[in-house]
Write a structure and sequence with these properties.
single chain; alpha/beta; Rossmann fold; Hypothetical Protein Tm841, Chain: A,domain 3; four-stranded parallel β-sheet; 24% strand
């Protein structure tokens, strides 16, 4: 068992096999649908969520963890680990970071380190994964935190959406709000730049095909010819996700690639989507 426990939320979109391999503790965020509370990925699978989303006129909302819920988790993990590193969804998007900080202050003897990922989805997931790999290699809590901090300015996230309506209703649209004008018959691309913390508008292609091509071009501009680690996440777009993965393999020097479902809590804010999260290996001196 690792000396350092790695904690994150379901928003990180990590594949189940990765979670199991590295013993990552994933806390399920909450989806509230017609006053019923579902635990993301536990009571409500992504497949169930998107099937219902397309048929239900009721708009689901989400809820972060309370300080008491974080405290319960921290106390449980402290019984088997020397330290805890929690890598959480950007504080500009939810209240997890603040709640976790309050929880750590409620039990000051617990060695808890809180890291604001400044991003979301598998961009957050890659930060968590690299921290977990460091912990598995025997790193100290301080070294694990340092590894996470090194990753924050490197990871990027892009998504093409069927509509911006879900982001608008959920209040997570950030500077992408300017995209709301003249969005009819467009497939907007939004993103979270490295360490930016919130969603920005990127492009307004008119077709889904063009949106995918433009995401690949944007990724190419960012990584150049460097080896790349990438995850394709989708909300009810499985066929398109696998097609995009093949295009990525053909176009880039892909060292690591995952295909994941956009979890329910992310889908509640983004709706049906096709996303890429990625980072490039650092250039050799």
């Amino acid at each position: 068992m690792n000396r350092v426990a790695i904690v994150t939320e379901s928003s990180s979109n990590l594949p189940p096999e990765v979670v199991e391999e590295y013993g990552i503790h994933v806390l399920p965020l909450k989806v509230i649908w017609e006053e019923k509370v579902f635990r993301d990925g536990v009571d409500l699978t992504p497949q169930e969520f998107y099937s219902r989303l397309r048929m239900d006129h009721y708009m689901p909302t989400t809820a972060a963890f309370s300080p008491s819920e974080f405290l319960e988790t921290f106390r449980s993990l402290a019984q088997e680990h020397e330290a805890i590193v929690a890598i959480l969804l950007s504080q500009d998007l939810t209240g997890s970071v603040e709640a976790a900080q309050i929880a750590s202050q409620m039990a000051p003897t617990l060695p808890v380190h809180i890291v604001d990922s400044r991003t979301a989805a598998m961009a957050q997931g890659f930060i968590v994964l690299e921290a977990a790999r460091a912990a598995a290699a025997g790193a100290t809590a301080e070294q694990v935190v340092a590894r996470a901090q090194e990753m924050i300015p490197r990871v990027q996230f892009l998504a093409t959406l069927e509509t911006l309506e879900y982001l608008r209703r959920g209040g997570r649209i950030g500077t992408a709000a300017a995209f709301l004008g003249s969005m009819l018959q467009m497939k907007p691309i939004v993103g979270i730049p490295p360490a930016h913390g919130t969603v920005v508008g990127v492009a307004r292609p008119r077709t889904w095909k063009r949106a995918v091509e433009q995401m690949l071009d944007l990724m190419g501009e960012a990584v150049g010819e460097r080896p790349v680690h990438v995850a394709v996440s989708h909300g009810d777009q499985e066929e398109e996700a696998h097609a995009l993965a093949e295009k990525l393999r053909r176009r880039f020097d892909v060292r690591e690639l995952y295909i994941t479902y956009f979890t329910a809590v992310m889908g509640a804010h983004a709706g049906p989507a096709l996303c890429v999260a990625f980072y490039a290996d650092e250039e050799k001196p």
